[in-house]
Backbone:
């Protein structure tokens, strides 16, 4: 059995041009890959900068921001009470204001059947409270913007939603570790 190596028929300008064209194409493909990776990295960094939590107010800015937040809360709270039409006083979780003055927080409201719904997220659009149950488009995006920008805390409380962070829930819920109450 014999092996025969095929030799190129011509070794000249055409062969060199073809080799040069292949190298140029390879270089172009590699350049596009490097450009694509660079653009992905740039867009990733821009996204991370956009969603990074913002620092709360401190020092002299905190004093001015707290007074602004109290004024905003004074206009939002009565509309929140009227909107929920509760027979009892509001049970609030944490409430805070963003840098742009928007008030965000959690409230334990009464449902249409008369039972408590548990801590529910809200934010204020102007002075009107907006809840997820309203079905407005963009609620989740606005809520995550609220969570990223806790500029001034108006009222301390739980940021957990549901029944357990409520006053009644704290009496009835307990933490479970490894199947046993803590």
Residues:
């Amino acid at each position: 059995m014999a092996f025969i190596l095929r030799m190129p028929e011509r070794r000249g300008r055409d062969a060199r041009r073809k080799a040069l064209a292949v190298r140029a194409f390879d270089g172009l493909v590699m350049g596009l890959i490097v450009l694509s990776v660079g653009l992905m990295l740039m867009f990733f960094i821009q996204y991370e900068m956009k969603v990074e939590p913002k620092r709360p107010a401190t020092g002299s800015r905190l004093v001015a921001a707290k007074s602004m937040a109290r004024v905003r809360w004074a206009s939002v709270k009565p509309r929140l009470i009227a909107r929920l039409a509760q027979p009892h006083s509001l049970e609030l979780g944490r409430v805070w204001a963003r840098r742009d003055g928007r008030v965000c927080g959690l409230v334990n409201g009464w449902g249409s059947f008369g039972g408590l719904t548990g801590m529910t997220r809200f934010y204020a659009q102007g002075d009107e409270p907006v809840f997820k149950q309203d079905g407005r488009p963009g609620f989740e995006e606005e809520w995550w913007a609220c969570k990223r920008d806790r500029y001034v805390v108006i009222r301390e409380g739980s940021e957990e939603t549901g029944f357990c962070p409520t006053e009644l829930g704290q009496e009835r819920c307990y933490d479970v570790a490894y199947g046993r109450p803590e």
Q: What stands out?
A: Residues 122 and 131 are 5 Å apart (CA to CA). The chain has four helices and seven strands. The longest strand covers residues 116-125.
